[in-house]
Design a protein that fits this description.
Shape of chain A: globular
Strand content of chain B: under 5%
Distance between the termini of chain A: 69 Å
Structural class of chain B: mainly alpha
Number of strands of chain B: 0
Helix content of chain B: over 70%
Structural class of chain A: mainly alpha
Largest sheet of chain B: none
Shape of chain B: globular
Oligomer: heterodimer
Order of helices and strands of chain A: HHHHHHHHHHHHH
Number of domains of chain B: 2
Chain lengths: ~350, ~170
């Protein structure tokens, strides 16, 4: 047996030697791929989780027929949507119609790249991590806007217009809310922000920022109560009225990818990321803590959808500009004062 | 001399920027033209990244591609320009219409080349400027300019509020 192992080792040795300089690249590429894949699968299973939890809260079962606990429902739905006719209506603007769902999906997936999962795990460690997320959030508007415009239908267009106005408004104070966090950590890098929360989670000193972040995070993912772009009681299905098949599927899954991404960000920015009891000794426990916290926020998204009605459009805009914006400005002033006081200037 | 990866990135981004900007000018459909402008802004952001200014690159995407261009596309969407505009654009883009702008921009191109010839310029990817350095410079030597710009923006904000007020 040991002879065979030695032979195997001798056979692999030149390959390993040749691969040696490339190993870091290969390792990074593999972890990146694994994290992205796991995130998309988690996002797909969130559809099942949402339907089951909504069922639980509404005193019914939800999908429980396919596989144990209905876990196979996602696979069945995926298969169905893959084999549906991918129909492009004749009246649409074809190039933009096709590219819109691609933008939706890829932007939300890219956002996950800057989130550190554990002390050692993470895709990219940018020194402008927070700005990268804001850029991604800003660009994801194009998906909804182009989807709405290219469909050449009034409901889709109205959905696109609503979404654009909503996202632009909420982006402003989302950025301002995050600046408080950045100020406290003294860095745009999400890893530094997590490290700065070793003593106390940001949710306590940055509570005002957190108050503004919660509606902004809901607005970025277009979830209830901020799902006006696709308010089905007045706009049919909003910006994806004319979509079918896999293109609709991409819009649908991108919403859930967005939830996973924004939940991960909430954990990172306000709830200490991987920090938790025992995470210092055992780095693997850090990953467990991160996943547990993120899962909690994903569930809270569903709870919000189950509990809250959809407000009027002007109410959403008023809440953004008249409540959240002043709140973040006050928070910025307070944080700046505290930071200056602590540095003894 | 082999070009480094960062230099290849720089020239690729520059080529994309020139091509997409050209397509903005020749585009017949207003929304498509604007989307090419967004691509051009991405390419410029990429150039900032390769030159070692990630902060400027990120702001380019957030402010220009993510906010200003969104408003442009938004307005063009609301105008509901249809097939008629595409026809009109086709009529307008005659060879004669190219002469004036081409002459003027070739003068500018000449000036640009003249400025670029003395080559004591920075290499692509030589240094990286962190957001902190940008902040220190902005609130140090350029403090007055920052304050003036913020006054101007405040004035614009008040004016916009006044115009939007319903009596």
């Amino acid at each position: 047996m040991s002879g065979f192992l030695a032979k195997l080792q001798a056979w692999f040795a030149p390959i390993m030697a040749w691969l040696e300089p490339w190993l870091p690249f290969i390792f990074t590429a593999l972890t990146t791929l694994a994290i992205l894949l796991i995130m998309v699968i988690v996002a797909a299973y969130m559809i099942w989780l949402e339907r089951r939890l909504l069922g639980l809260w509404q005193d019914r079962y939800g999908p429980n027929r396919v596989g144990p606990f209905g876990l196979g429902q996602v696979v069945a739905d995926m298969l169905k949507i893959f084999f549906k006719e991918d129909w492009v209506p004749s009246f649409v603007d074809k190039p933009t119609f096709i590219i819109a769902p691609v933008i939706a999906m890829s932007m939300m997936m890219l956002g996950f790249a800057v989130i550190p999962l554990s002390p050692t795990l993470g895709v990219a460690d940018l020194n402008i991590g927070v700005l990268f997320f804001l850029a991604i959030a800003g660009l994801s508007v194009y998906a909804v806007m182009l989807g709405g415009w290219s469909s050449n239908s009034k409901y889709a267009l109205l959905g696109g217009i609503r979404s654009t106005a909503q996202t632009i408004s909420y982006e402003v104070f989302m950025g301002l809310a995050l600046m408080g966090v950045v100020m406290q950590a003294g860095s745009f890098s999400l890893r530094d922000i997590v490290n700065a929360q070793a003593g106390m989670w940001n949710v306590i000193p940055q509570f005002l920022a957190f108050l503004a972040w919660v509606p902004a995070a809901l607005a970025v993912t277009h979830r209830t109560p901020f799902d006006l772009p696709e308010a089905e009681s007045e706009l049919v299905q909003g910006y994806h009225t004319e979509y079918s098949g896999m293109k609709f599927g991409m819009f649908m899954v991108s919403e859930y990818v967005g939830i996973v991404m924004v939940s991960g960000l909430t954990t990172t920015l306000f709830f200490g990321g991987w920090h938790g009891p025992g995470a210092e000794q055992y780095p693997i426990l850090g990953l467990v803590w991160f996943c547990a916290k993120t899962f909690l926020f994903m569930c809270s998204y569903i709870l919000v959808r189950a509990a809250l009605p959809r407000p009027r459009y002007d109410q959403i805009m008023a809440a953004g500009w008249k409540f959240c914006l002043p709140l973040t400005l006050v928070n910025l002033l307070l944080t700046a004062a505290v930071v200056l006081w602590n540095s003894g200037v | 001399m082999m070009p480094t990866i960062i230099e290849i990135c720089f020239y690729a981004a520059a080529a994309v920027a020139v091509l997409s900007t050209f397509l903005v000018v020749t585009g017949k459909n207003p929304v498509h033209a604007l989307l090419y402008l967004v691509v051009s802004l991405f390419a410029v952001a990429m150039i900032f990244f390769t030159l070692g200014a990630p902060f400027a690159g990120a702001l380019e995407i957030i402010v220009y591609a993510g906010a200003i261009m969104v408003l442009f596309v938004f307005v063009v969407m609301m105008l509901n320009l249809g097939e008629a505009v595409v026809q009109q654009e086709k009529l307008w883009l005659t060879p004669r219409a190219w002469i004036g702008p081409a002459l003027l921009s070739s003068v500018l191109l000449g000036l640009l080349l003249y400025v670029l010839v003395p080559s004591d310029l920075h290499m692509a990817g030589a240094t990286t400027i962190s957001p902190k350095q940008v902040g220190i410079v902005l609130y140090g030597p350029y403090l007055l300019a920052v304050e003036l710009a913020s006054m101007l923006l405040l004035g614009a904000l008040v004016a916009a509020y006044h115009l939007g007020k319903h009596e």
